[in-house]
Amino acid sequence: MSDWTSPSTVSPCGCEVVRMKMVTAVIRPEMFDAVRAALEADGIYGMTVSEVMGRGAQKGIALKFRGKTVPVELIPKVKIEMVVKDADVGRVIGICRANGRTGKPGDGRIFVLPVESICRVRTDLEDPEEA
Amino acid sequence: MIDSGATAFILVCTALVMLMTPGVGLFYGGLVRRKNFISMIALSFIAFALVSIQWVICGYSLAFGADISGLIGSLEYTFLQGVGMEGDRIPDLLFAAFQMVFAGLTLAIVTSGVAERIKLSSFVVFGLLWTTLVYDPLAHWAWGGGWAAQFGALDFAGGTVVHISSGFSALALALVIGKRLGFGGHGMEPNSIPMVLLGGALLWFGWFGFNAGSALAADGLAANAFIATNIAAASGALAWLCAAWVRGRPGSVGIISGAIAGLVAITPAAGSVTPMAAIPIGAAAGLVCYGALLFRVREGLDESLDAWAIHGMGGIFGALATGVFAVAAIGGVDGLLYGNPGQLLIQAVDVAVVVAYSFGATYVIAKVIDAAMGLRVTEEEEYVGLDIAQHGESVRV
Predict the structure, then answer these.
(1) Are A61 and B397 a contacting pair at CB < 8 A?
(2) Is position A2 within any domain?
(3) Between residues 21 and 80 of chain A, which touch chain B (CB distance below 8 Å)?
(4) What tens digit of pLDDT does each residue of B216-260 get?
(5) Of A53, A61, A70, which has the smallest distance from its Cβ to B397's Cβ?
(6) If DSSP codes are grouped into helix, strand and coil, which group holds residue B114?
(7) In terms of C-beta density within 10 A (0-12 exposed, 13-18 middle, 19 or more buried), how is residue B7 classed?
(8) Cα gap B131→B68, rounded to integer Å
(9) Residue A4 has what pLDDT?
(10) Is B186 at the interface with chain A, CB within 8 A?
(11) Domain extent at residue A68
(12) Is residue A99 less than 8 Å (CB to CB) from chain B?
């Protein structure tokens, strides 16, 4: 896994072409406004946002009902997907952490994936800088 | 003697008012977050079911039994003993049913103050105590021959009994149970505004039964109340629309809230004022309630769904406006504008007592229940939402 690279990491000419990453943050819905505002303040505008259901290591939340444990398997979350320059990844993660954190289980996860290519629909450009 | 026209009319009005209770549920359900959508609607049905049974066991008798010192009714009609198919124009059983749907609706309005955080079992206990100790005496005072009726206070369809009482009780309850987790910080936007509007539509529709039916006859007074009701609703909606428009884009929730503010304010007045008086009453109620809502938000009070601002403050305004606009040609009593300033004073005293009693008694009941069994769900249950935590159901995304 560690030495895996996406097929386009190295172009046919041998030079690095991948300069973009997709950062997927799955966070608490009630923290979304704060995270979005903080990202925007830092110049990160583009994002795709969806309401999702999910669970982590705790397998959801366990509630008590008449002394018995009642599992709530899936908890609503908000998923933010952002495609950012490699150099910005650390900052984006930091912002999501700082503004999405309550310190309790259920604050979410952040995934970083390589982006193979980006095409803008409006034009024929295929360049992350331009797109 | 039974009057078949009046009986047919009140039968229909009773059903109309019943529809207002799930109407409140849909209105409130649309206003909360999706995880509590079912809970809000369920609370309105639970409120209605609880009060229906309490009413026939003892509520009706406490409200309409023989007067005891102006404060409460006797127990002569418990279990509907002596309440039969005969009556004055309408059967006594129908009168009891008509009053029952008012009592059920009132408890449903109170759920505003505990939205998204009340423990179901505590609500059941609270509801039974509240309707017995707060609603029933108030109904007796105004309509059952209690002190307010003897004193000459005008409350045609329940401005004090239903609206001031539910609004100020919701406020007291909200203060005892505390703010929702994350209130003021996290977004708490309505999950379904179309549902709010649907609930509002059912309220507006049912209110014709509420006010016109309070004439207890299919006559001219019922017609006066009917049209005054619609005029006040329309006037309130337009006033709130204009006020909100000045501040920005006028939301539809505000427009329907304005209609309800107008309906609340005309409730005590519908049998005492001319239809034209309903225009200023409705419009002023829209502005008063909008102002109250802005105040509530500014103060950071989590009386979550604004029963206090709309029912409580709208109810106070309506009760006072009745003392201003009442005219003898409609209801037999003149108000301030027709040379009887004393009526306004009577209304003011009635309002002050009802505000103090409903707020104070509810505060005490809520404190006792909170100490005995806890009013509120756990933090985790509140986070997950009452739909899953209390009912094991959820609205699918």
Answers:
(1) no
(2) no
(3) 30-33, 51, 53, 61, 63-64, 70, 72, 75-76
(4) 999 999 999 999 999 999 999 999 999 999 999 999 999 999 999
(5) A53
(6) helix
(7) middle
(8) 18
(9) 46
(10) yes
(11) 20-114
(12) no
User: Does any domain span residue B397?
Assistant: no
Domain count, chain A: 1
Structure tokens at B64: 């309409």
* CA-closest candidate to residue A52, choices A96, A109, A113: A109
Smallest CA–CA distance, residue B297 to chain A, in Å, is: 19
Q: Which domain CATH number covers A85?
A: 3.30.70.120
**What CATH code is carried by the domain that includes residue B54?**
1.10.3430.10
Inform me whether the C-beta atom of residue B386 falls under 8 Å from chain A C-beta atoms.
Answer: no
Note the pLDDT of residue A15: 56
* Predicted confidence (pLDDT) per residue in B33-71, tens digit: 999 999 999 999 999 999 999 999 999 999 999 999 999
The answer to whether the beta carbons of residues B269 and B228 sit under 8 Å apart is yes
pLDDT for residue A64: 84
Mean pLDDT of B155-171: 97
Question: CA of A113 to nearest chain B CA: how many angstroms apart?
Answer: 27
- Is residue B24 over pLDDT 90? yes
When mean pLDDT is compared across A63-67, A90-94, B130-134, the lowest value belongs to A63-67
In a domain, B102, yes or no: yes
CA A45 to chain B, closest CA, distance in angstroms equals: 20
Q: Are B103 and B49 in contact (CB under 8 A)?
A: no
pLDDT in tens, B346-391: 999 999 999 999 999 999 999 999 999 999 999 999 999 999 999 9
Q: What would the two tokens of residue B170 be? A: 């919701």
Look over chain B and give the mean of its residue pLDDT values, rounded to a whole number: 96
**Chain B hits for A32, Cβ within 8 Å:** 187
Residue A5 lies in a domain: no
Torsion B309-B310-B312-B314 (CA) sign: positive
Domain-located, residue B111 = yes
Give domain status of residue A11, yes or no: no
What pLDDT was estimated at residue A131?
Answer: 45
A63 to B392: CB separation less than 8 angstroms, yes or no: no
What range defines the domain where residue B157 resides? 4-391
Contact B379/A104 with Cβ under 8 angstroms? no
DSSP state of B90: S
**Nearest alpha-carbon partner for B154 in B17, B271, B18:** B271
B396 burial class (0-12, 13-18, 19+ CB within 10 angstroms)? exposed
**Interchain CB contact of B189 with A (< 8 Å):** no
